[in-house]
């Protein structure tokens, strides 16, 4: 089950791959049917939120292309766009603002 949480806080394999910017793993998990929005942690953060937080531009682009919902709020009730702005990730902000 590609959407099975692997930690107590609800982190899934896709969440962990996106958080760390492992684009090939993100691509494989999505191809295997991982739900890009289902994987949320206790604070509501999604793979897209984590990729935006960490400035992983290519991962953000892949998640958006795969239909990730950029309006879902995560940590501190921020959207991925708000989090990318907070962190100063201009390339990610440009993708999310489009």
Structure write-up:
The chain is globular and about 35 Å long. α3 (47-53) packs antiparallel against α4. The chain has helices spanning 13-19, 23-31, 47-53, 57-65, 80-87, 90-97. Helix content is 49%, strand content 0%. The termini are far apart. It is built from 6 helices and no strands. The chain is an all-alpha fold and 98 residues long. The longest helix is centred in the N-terminal third of the chain and has 9 residues, at 23-31. The model has no long low-confidence stretch (mean pLDDT 93).
Describe this structure in a few short sentences.
With 98 residues, this protein is mainly α. The chain has helices at 13-19, 23-31, 47-53, 57-65, 80-87, 90-97.
Main sheet, how many strands, which sense, barrel?
Answer: none
Number of helices: 6
N→C terminal distance: 32 Å
Q: Which geometry do the CA atoms define? A: globular
What would you call the quaternary organization? single chain
Number of strands: 0
Topology:
Elements: H1 13-19, H2 23-31, H3 47-53, H4 57-65, H5 80-87, H6 90-97
Helix pairs in contact: 1-2, 1-3, 3-4, 3-5, 4-6, 5-6
């Amino acid at each position: 089950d590609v959407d099975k949480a692997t930690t107590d806080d609800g982190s899934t394999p896709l969440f962990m791959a996106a958080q760390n910017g492992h684009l090939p793993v993100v691509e494989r998990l999505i191809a295997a049917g991982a739900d890009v929005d289902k994987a949320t942690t206790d604070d509501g953060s999604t793979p897209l939120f984590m990729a935006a937080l960490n400035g992983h531009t290519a991962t953000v682009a892949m998640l958006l292309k795969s239909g990730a919902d950029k309006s879902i709020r995560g940590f501190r009730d921020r959207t991925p766009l708000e989090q990318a702005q907070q962190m100063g990730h201009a390339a990610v902000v440009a993708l999310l603002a489009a």
